[in-house]
Amino acid sequence: MDWIKKINFISQRGFQVFQELGQMVPLRLTRRAAQWFYSQTKIVQQQFQTDWTHLKLAIANYFMNWHWLNKMKEKAIHMKYQQKDHDQETPTDYFIRKLEVLHLVHDLTDLETIMEIMNGTPREWLPFVDTSRMTTVQDLQTTLKYHEETLICIANHDIERRLKALEQSSNKPHDSKIQEPLDETNTGKPPEDPKEWLVGAHKSFMQPQFPRRDDIVSKRKTPEEKGARPC
Question: What are the extents of the domains in the chain?
Answer without folding.
Answer: 2-64, 70-168
